[in-house]
Amino acid sequence: MSEKICMYPGVTVRLVEDEPVVTFTRFQFRMGMSIDENLDALYEALDCDLVEIVPVTIAGREYFIFCDESGKLKPWVPTYPLYDEAGECCDVIASNFVVVKVDAQENFLQMSVQEFAEIEEHLRTMVPRAAKEVRKKKASMR
């Protein structure tokens, strides 16, 4: 089992003068370790007690987003929109999250430079869209 530390792209939310600030970040986890073996590190990195796993496709590749299962029960900031097959926003991830590549045995894998760049570019597009989707949903409910 490898103890190599790998970087994974994600987003964190922190308060600055009582205003939430969303920051693109890079999380570190041990490559070759399973999801279960990395849970404590995920809880610490995401500042949560329960991790939700959301499968996503980015640039034609399958990844997992790990986020706070209880993110919407806390003061939250929308950080990633989720779309259904019809292209409609069906949910949003709230607060911190990380995008991870895993193998069939759910071991964390290292991303190629290209995969990492594609994910970071994808996040720069999608993260601002999350707040827009929430505003759009609220407006349609009035």
How would you describe this structure to a colleague?
There is one protein chain. The model has no long low-confidence stretch (mean pLDDT 90). The protein is built from two helices and eight strands, in the order ββαββββββα. Strands 1, 2, 3, 4, 7 and 8 form a six-stranded antiparallel β-sheet that branches. Strands 5-6 form a two-stranded antiparallel sheet. It is globular and about 50 Å long. The protein has 142 residues and is of the alpha+beta class. The protein has helices at residues 39-46, 113-140, and strands at 5-16, 19-30, 51-58, 61-68, 78-83, 89-94, 97-102, 108-109. It has one domain (5-140).
State the helix count: 2
Estimate the global geometry from the Cα principal axes.
globular
Element-level helix/strand string: EEHEEEEEEH
Q: What is the residue-averaged pLDDT?
A: 90
Major β-sheet annotation: 6 strands, antiparallel
Query: Structural class from helices and strands?
Result: alpha+beta
Q: Measured on Cα atoms, how large is the radius of gyration?
A: 15 Å
Indicate the percent of residues in helices: 25-40%
Report the span from N to C terminus.
Answer: 54 Å
Strand percentage:
35-45%
Number of strands: 8
Uncertain stretches of 5 or more adjacent residues: none
Count of structural domains: 1
List its salient traits:
142 residues; alpha+beta; 8 strands; 42% strand
Topology:
Elements: E1 5-16, E2 19-30, H1 39-46, E3 51-58, E4 61-68, E5 78-83, E6 89-94, E7 97-102, E8 108-109, H2 113-140
Antiparallel strand pairs: 1-2, 1-7, 3-4, 4-7, 5-6, 7-8
